[in-house]
Amino acid sequence: MSELTDLTLSECISGLQGGDFSSLELVRAYLQRIERLDNSLHAYLCVLAEQALAQAKDADRRLSSWRKEQEAPPPLMGVPLAVKDVLCVEGAPTTCGSRILENFTPPFTATAVERLQKAGAIVLGKTNTDEFAMGSSTENSAYGLTRNPWDPQRVPGGSSGGSAAAVAARLAPAALGTDTGGSVRQPASFCGVTGLKPTYGSVSRYGLVAFGSSLDVVGVLAHDARDAALVFQHMAGRDPLDATSVERNLTPSDLTRAPFPEREGELRGLRIGVPREYFIPGLQAEVEQAVRAALALFESLGAELVEVNLPHTEYALPVYYLVAPAEASANLARFDGIRYGPRLPADELWQVYRRTRGQKFGPEVKRRIMLGTYALSAGYYDAYYGQAQKVRTLIRQDFERAFQQVDVIAAPVTPNTAFVIGEHSDDPLSMYLEDIFTIPANLAGIPGLAFPVGFDQQGLPVGMQLMGPHFREDLLLGAAGVYQQATDWHRRTPPDGRSG
Amino acid sequence: MGVRQDYEAVIGLEVHAELQTESKMFCACPVVDSTVAAPNIAVCPVCAGMPGVLPVVNRRAVELALRVALALECEIAPLSVFARKNYFYPDLPKGYQISQYEQPLARNGGLTIFVSTGEKRVRIRRVHLEEDTGKLTHVEKNGQSYSLVDLNRAGVPLLEIVTEPDLHTPEEVRAYAMALRSLLRYVGANSGDMQKGVMRIEPNVSVRPAGSAELGTRTEIKNLNSFRALERSVDYEIRRQSELLRQGQRVVQQTLGWDEARGVTVAQRSKEEAHDYRYFPEPDLPPLVLDPAWVEQIRRDLPELPAARYRRFQQQHGLSAYNAEVLVAERPVADYFEAALAARPELPPKQLANWITGELFGWMNTYNQSIDEIKVAPAALAELVGMVVSGEINQNTAKSVLAEMLESGKSAAQVVKEKGLRQVSDQAQIEAWVEQVLADNPTQVESYLSGKETVAQWLFGQVMRLGRGQANPQVVQQALQRKLLAIKQSHTR
Ligand SMILES: [Zn+2]
Question: How many distinct structural domains can be found in chain A?
């Protein structure tokens, strides 16, 4: 048997339920591997070793009693998962990668995490993130950057870089991320893992520390589409604590089957839209080649490629950088040093705010708060925020029109493969361009799935994304599942992974 | 007084009324009386603005808001939108208040008020839902001053009710505020407990030369929570602004506070320092879409409202404007009156009303009891008034009987029987008392005969005293008149 940490989530589950190994062994294997590799990788901000071991023992007891009774245990019983540090876990520090939440421990658990725990999952630890999920490289974490397991000189992407790196380096079988403008899909692409951004509202945001409330969604980073579906299925659905959440009655077969199951694994009849606006000058040649090759494979599996237009794509980036910072400027107002987090004392109230926020927020967060505050200011609102909302509607309508023609849309995830640490540090605008292909799905609220489709000449993973109509994660996961049966890109592991 | 003739005031009112719900606007915390509860006992992660929490709308708050909006004859928006109002203050946990801005719950209503010049409809511009803030207490300890934050009130549902600038005098302003308070209590939306700050009033005041169509520069007086402060501050502000204009000076647009002790308005901040609240739609809450059937149900279930009842009490029961007004002001009082009348439909409504607004109110004020707390049920009062009308007891006796009833909870008949207070209407008995009084007071009789007719009133009092107040005054009056006339005639003869 290969190492436990090489198993997919589904393999972990069948191994645990079949009694091939215990949850304690599995959790220990991950903790040991984290111990060995994470000093240099820094995927985790905090490892919850004690709690995880205790929960694993408990899970083993329950698994064995279920085996005796010949009953099915909760589906994720004993399976460890990593959680991005913008999701609250009761009793565990939740920093959002920011000094302003240093030592903050929430008194409640995010609904998404709680549902997975109810299904039996064990939280291994909290993973690194750009401060308040603002960034595309995880370099904006106040607690140090995370390295890309495929090349330690490169970034893992962001903001869910810690979760993507953890899954790629086999430091967790799957991890939760969040996606506001590509923060699950872009690091998935950079790290060669599968990343699902569900439909907005599919997963409760309760306990997710808000960045852009109308865009944020909890997503999954996993080894393959099947694992992503498994995690998604157990955390999705309406939550009375989130008024924007919607009911999803998902069963595993909904999500992991091929889009047209009667055709037995083939994709015949699946119409894949290829938007010309996503194949633009500046797209790295190897990325385009890998995506085109994947499209050709989809075609050979029976899918039909259809060129589509998404004419307002070029406005997605400016719209996003008005909407997201505007919402963030209000969302981050609560970090005032009054009720929790550090407070820098001063003689006057406004000086308390100024000193605390001035010193404890990082530069990117402050930049976005200022952008958002400006966009909402009296006299500018109509020109910026108001206008952005109107264009956002046009972008959504682009997708609605396209989905009358096609079932899913395929596109590159990012213009480039993982970049070198520090490459964009002095130029925030060039960093913002990293999200150019992922942002439209957030603005439209539609689901997106990134998965590996090849490697560039430097051995860095290349990703592709599928986007689908609202609530049609099944189409994306099903199509990617068929693709992954025909390919092994998703099975490749970074050099450390093999030798470790 | 000259001031009022040269200049006309234009006044609009913003009222913030807490909605009487069990739980807060966006979380499950109970609503507690924040003037007495221990600090921060009704607080959860949501209303404390912890990272990651989300608001969920309290349906009951929406229902109460709709009751008020419908009672104010507003157009109800089938879709309204919550918005964030952004500013920093330690009593505002999230750094923004969830309110409604561009698309409020209701618009274009009106409230009828009754003032000395007659009836008047004050237009309501908008009614919207929002959440209250917490409360700061500034303390001094060991030479250090600091502030304590109590979040019990943070997130309590608030209704903001904004008028058009339709009011022109302190009297109208007061009448509007009182009518609104009464209406809020009628529909069960607010306790009307002004001292507890559940209803806070913010008038905006401007003056202009009488007859002018243009509006002057306005000032806003913040956070008044008594009718007296409201009336006084508006009166002060009208005089202050008129005086400025008369001296050729400008009114500065600003926010004012009211200094109750000194009786003056005090500048808080000017327009230049005004907040930019950066309102934008609240992304955590979908638009509030109302089921028209639900709205209709609420409309149908509204009680008769104060203005309609006020008119009906005058038309149907022939009450004076004064009696109608004071009876109608509180729904339980009006209900009490109608219940009493229903128990004895033959009673003159006016007389019944007088007993309630006179004796009963006197008792309630003295003992600080509400009409729901007193021991005399409506039917019991009606019985008492019935005994007066039939002549069984007289007015004065009835007052002491009522006092006993209020004290002990006994019925009027019981008290009268126990104390032997039944009125004496017996002709022979009363004539005997009259004769005795006349015999005992020859000097007074003499002076009556010499033309001092007022002495008759004094003699009447003596007879009543002799009868220990139980003599039927009408019978006494008649008997006395007859005797005196007889003496007069025998004298002249
Ligand atoms: Zn609460």
Answer: 1
Give dist(CA B392, CA B384) in Å, integer. Answer: 10
Which residues pair with residue A461 across a beta bridge? A455
The ipTM is: 0.95
- A109 vs A368: CA distance, rounded Å: 27
Mean pLDDT, residues B412-433 taken together: 81
Of all residues in chain A, the one with the smallest CA distance to B85 is: A330
Q: Which domains does chain B have, with CATH numbers?
A: 2-297 (no CATH), 304-419 (no CATH), 427-492 (1.10.10.410)
Which residues in chain B touch residue A340, judged by CB atoms under 8 angstroms apart? 50
Structure tokens at B428: 């022979």
User: CA–CA distance from B271 to each of A373, B84, B254 (Å)?
Assistant: 20, 21, 6
User: Environment class of residue B273 by beta-carbon count within 10 Å: exposed (0-12), middle (13-18) or buried (19+)?
Assistant: exposed
How many other β-carbons are positioned within 10 Å of the β-carbon of residue B458? 14
B118-131/B82-86 β-pairing: unpaired
Residues B166-199: tens digit of each pLDDT: 999 999 999 999 999 999 999 999 999 999 999 9
List the domain range (segments joined by +) for residue A226. 4-311+396-499
Does residue A300 have an active-site annotation? no
Query: Does residue A380 form part of some domain?
Result: no
Mutation for testing the B interface, residue in A339, A347, A349 having most B CBs under 10 Å = A339
Measured between alpha carbons, how far is A414 from A287 in angstroms, rounded to an integer? 8
Contacts of B292 (CB under 8 A, 6+ apart): B78
Residue holding tokens 């950088």?
A321
**Residue found by looking up tokens 């924007």 in the block:** A244
Asked if residue A349 is part of any domain, the answer here is no
Q: Cα angle vertex A370, ends A364, A374, to 5°?
A: 150
